[in-house]
Amino acid sequence: MAAHTSQSVAKAAGDDVENDAAARGLSRRTDSESAGNGRRGGLRRALATHWYAWAMVAPVVLVLGVIIGWPLVRGVYLSLTDANERNVARTIGARHIEATYEFVGLDNYTSVLGDPVFLQRLVWTVVWTVACVSITFTLGLVLANMLNRDFRGRAAYRMALILPWAVPGFVSVFAWRFLFNRDNGILNKILDGGGIAAVPWLDDPTWAKFSVVAVNVWLGVPFMMVALLGGLQSIPGELYEAAEMDGASAWQRFRHITLPGLRAVSMTVILLSTIWTFNMFPVIFLLTRGGPGDSTEILVTQAFREAFVASPRDFAGSATWGVLILALLMIFALVYRRSLRKQGEVW
Fold first, then answer.
1. Are 222 and 161 in contact (CB under 8 A)?
2. Which of 21, 28, 253, 303 has the greatest number of CB atoms lying within 10 Å of its CB?
3. Which regions of 80-164 does DSSP assign to beta strands (E)?
4. In this structure, what are the phi and psi dihedrals at residue 50, rounded to the nearest 5 degrees?
5. Is 53 exposed, middle or buried (0-12, 13-18, 19+ CB in 10 A)?
6. What is the Cα–Cα distance from 119 to 121, expressed in whole angstroms?
7. How far is residue 307's CA from residue 313's CA, in Å, rounded to a whole number?
8. Whole-angstrom Cα distance, residue 347 to residue 341?
9. How confident is the model over 168-218, as pLDDT tens digits?
10. Which of 308, 304, 297, 245 is CA-nearest to residue 118?
C-alpha cells in the first residue's frame, strides 16, 4: 500500500513537472509570437501613420540605390577581377564581343597596397587634406568673427566673400590657371614689376603643391565662413556681456565662449570638408593634371588615370583604388565619430 502510494505521488509529481515544462514552453512561444506580432503591428502602424513621409522618401532611396548603390556594388565586383579594356564586353560595329575577364580575388588589393606609388599618393593626399582643411577652417573662423560684428557695409563684404562659392568650380580653377601662367600670368607680371623673377607656379613640384592648396582654400573658405557665422549667431550675446562685465579679455571670451559654442558646428564642417578635400578631383585635374610629373597626384586622380589614361585602361585597378579610398574615408569617419562620443558630443 505504501509502495503504491509512493508510485502515485511520483507519477503525479512527474506529471506536474511535464505540465510546468509544457506551460513554460507555451509561454515562451506565446511571448515570442506576441513580440513578433508587436513588431509587425508597430511597423504597420508606422506605415499607416507616416505613409506620406515614406512615399516622399521612397523615390530618393530608389534614385540613390540606382546612382550610388549599383555602381558601388559593380565597382567592388570589378576590383576582384582582372577587367581591362581588352577583356570587357564591347561592341565593334555589328559584332559583339563577350567579356573574358576572370575573378582573381584580392590580388588587385595586394598589388596596389604593395606598390610604392600607393604610399606616395596616400601621403600627399593626407598632407593636402590636412593643409587645406586647417587653413580653410582658420580663415573661415577669422572671417566669420569679423562679419559677426556690426559695421558699415557688412552686407557688401558678405557678398564679396561668398562670391567664390557662387562661381562654378571649373571657372574658378581656369581663372587661377591663367593667374599662375609663368609667362603671361598676372601674378608674375606683378612680381616682374617689383623686380622679382617669375615664379614657376605650375612647373615646379613644390610651387605646384602650394598652388593647388591655395586654389582649394579659395574655393572652400566661403562654405566654412557661412557655416561658422551661423554658429556664431546662435551663441547668446548675454554670455559675452556677462564675461565682459567680469573682466574677461577678448581672447578669454573667444576661448571660453566662442570655441565651445562652435564645437558642434565645427565638428560637422571639419568632417565634411575633410571628405570633400580628400576626393577633390577638379582642382588637381584642371589646374595641374597631377603634374608636374606626378607630384600633385592624389588618390582619386590616380584612380582616374588607371581607368581613362593608362593603356590598356585598367578598370579593375581603378575600381580597387576607389574601394580603398572609400574604406579609408569610412575608417576616418568611424574614428572621428568615436572621438566625438568620448568628448561627450552626440553625433
1. yes
2. 303
3. 90-92, 95-97
4. -115, 35
5. exposed
6. 5
7. 5
8. 7
9. 888 889 999 999 988 888 899 898 888 888 889 999 999 999 999 999 999
10. 297
Nearest in space to 276 (alpha carbons), one of 165, 151, 120: 165
Closest CA to 301 of 74, 108, 117: 117
Rounded-to-integer distance, Cα 347 and Cα 345, Å: 6
Whole-angstrom CA distances from 63 to 3, 69, 77, 176 are 79, 9, 21, 35
C-alpha cell at 44: 504597420
Tell me the one-letter amino acid at 305.
Answer: R
* Distance in Å from the first CA to the final CA of the chain: 76
In whole angstroms, give the CA distance from residue 68 to residue 177. 32
Q: Please, which residues bridge with residue 103 across strands?
A: 81
List pLDDT tens digits, range 223-238.
999 999 999 988 888 8
Burial of 298 (0-12, 13-18, 19+ CB in 10 A): buried
Pairing type for strands 90-92 and 95-97 reads antiparallel
Residue 82 DSSP class = -
What is the grid cell recorded at 102? 576572370
